[in-house]
Amino acid sequence: MVGMRDVAKKAGVSLSTVSLVINNGEHVSDDVRSRVEWAMDALHYVPNELARNLSKNRTNTVGVILPTLRHPFFATLFASLQTALEERGMLALPCSTSDMKRGEEEYVDMLRRRMMDGIIMGAHTSHSADYWTSIGHPVVAFDRYLGMGVPTVGSDHEQGSRLVCDLLIRTGARHVVNLGGPRSQFHDLADLLASGADAEYLSTSYHSLSSYLVFRSMLPQAGVRWSFMESGEVDDFDSYARAAHDVFDRYPDADAIVCADITAALCVEEARSRGLRVPEDVQIVAYDGTYVTRLSGGGLTSICQDFDAIARLLTRRLMQLVEGPSAGEVDDAGADRVPMTLRIGSTTR
């Protein structure tokens, strides 16, 4: 088996010089670097990545914890994260909490044992903030609060909700119904005290309270009735169809529905099966903007999250923890919220 000593001998340089070239070290002339690279090619030498990483106390692997990869939202996010992490020389290792018995705990254990360099946490957790802040290794949260000192990155849901409300007020909606996940998972701890939210939100980590509060205030102020209906856990796909059916039974006078992409598509089909015209009788707005919203003729009107921008910012935050902040990477205040956009389709007036 060809080793570094063989490369050094063929290139006529020292073993330490070969090591510097392999690890992109400084103070190596272009001529010497070329000779070493020529020797490596001639001998078909492949550097031992595991050994290199161990010497740097790195694995170049990041755990990405999500509820399920079967959901279009999380599949799209993970694809963007793979690209963003790969650009930084990192491998994304997926963990679906609904499909693994230990889920997040197994990944945290791997992080503590230095089997990965960091974690991007994007699933609901029942662990307290003390659990996450005591890990002592790089963790970045997606769209949720995990505790003081754990960076959080996500979309600007307050802005996204305002886009929805402005649209529906402008198009004459009279009764808007939101379909969403369990309210027991709502949580914006940073704004909790200022908002005067109910104590029920204190035990959760999901970052959607700001969105809820926008709907609760903006629509009634404009004379529009507003209701909220739970649509089930994100990994319970059967609950989406039930919610799309039940919302029309529970709120027969609703003339606008706002919900995640899959449920929105099912609501369109349910409305038409009941003889309702979309958007004349009922407007439907999808919240997320994944590929699902483009599958029907005319497409769903959607509030779109910028998955690539979210992934780049999550990666940037994590790499700052892994490598330490470098020159030119000073964070701007509020840079952890990614703007959302409105895409008009055929399901609103």
UniProtKB/TrEMBL annotation:
Keywords: DNA-binding, Repressor, Transcription, Transcription regulation. PANTHER family: LACI-RELATED TRANSCRIPTIONAL REPRESSOR (PTHR30146), RIBOSE OPERON REPRESSOR (PTHR30146:SF95). SUPFAM superfamilies: lambda repressor-like DNA-binding domains, Periplasmic binding protein-like I. The keyword Repeat does not apply. This is LacI family DNA-binding transcriptional regulator. Coiled coil: none annotated. It holds the Pfam family LacI. Residues 2-56 form the HTH lacI-type domain. One of its GO terms (molecular function) is transcription cis-regulatory region binding.
